[in-house]
Automatic annotation (TrEMBL):
This is E3 ubiquitin-protein ligase. SUPFAM superfamilies: RING/U-box. Its main location: cytoplasm. It catalyses: S-ubiquitinyl-[E2 ubiquitin-conjugating enzyme]-L-cysteine + [acceptor protein]-L-lysine = [E2 ubiquitin-conjugating enzyme]-L-cysteine + N(6)-ubiquitinyl-[acceptor protein]-L-lysine.
Length: 199
């Protein structure tokens, strides 16, 4: 049980928060998020500036997250060849192209060059695969698919790299080769997208 003088406990002991969980002081201009957590308006603004529109307690996204992905192009086409594990449908092939350019103030080294990439990824051309495609397009529009950093494969800085939304970049080889079959992939990537407010 909480001690009676805990900031998390009301005088009646019903554990109703009467203090902001960020500054631990009495609420000033209280703001409640859709997840029902409450904060001082200024505390929430500062938390949002630091971490984006994400609840500091439960991590639910309450606004639109925009990333630092450089400008580029996303397109897709339908292939008739099925993916392993999806023999009843064709394949969606996504193509990403991010040209090289100069880093902005949003990036690790403003003013320095970054090196672009071309990547392809694959989804089954079924209902769930098309739903994931729609979500990925939304994430690309919000600049969340790529970022600029250190390449995991070459170790070089100033590279356009994936940004924590996993893609299947091979049609085969299973999870170890970033390919299919992987029956849990579509539900996993939807959870990754949801964590960034893409639903």
């Amino acid at each position: 049980t909480w001690p009676l003088d805990s900031p998390w406990t009301s005088p009646t002991g019903d554990q109703k928060d009467e203090r902001c969980p960020i500054c631990l002081d009495k609420f000033e201009n209280k703001k409640q998020l859709k997840c029902k957590h409450e904060f001082c308006k200024d505390c929430l603004r500062r938390a949002q500036e630091a971490n984006g529109p994400i609840c500091p307690i439960c991590r639910v996204v309450f606004g639109k997250i925009v990333g630092d992905q450089p400008d580029g192009r996303m397109s897709h086409q339908i292939l008739t060849i099925p993916l392993p594990g999806y023999s009843d449908c064709g394949t969606i092939m996504i193509s990403y192209e991010i040209p090289s350019g100069t880093q902005t103030e949003k990036h690790p080294n403003p003013g320095q060059r970054y090196f672009g990439i071309r990547r392809q990824a694959y989804l089954p051309d079924n209902k769930e695969g098309n739903e994931v495609l729609r979500l990925l397009k939304k994430a690309f529009g919000q600049k969340l698919i790529f970022t600029i950093g250190t390449s995991r494969t070459t170790g070089m800085d100033g590279q356009v790299t994936w940004n924590d939304i996993h893609h299947k970049t091979s049609t085969s080889g299973g999870p170890d080769c970033f390919g299919y079959p992987d029956p849990e992939y579509l539900s996993r990537v939807k959870e990754e997208l949801k964590a960034k407010g893409i639903e």
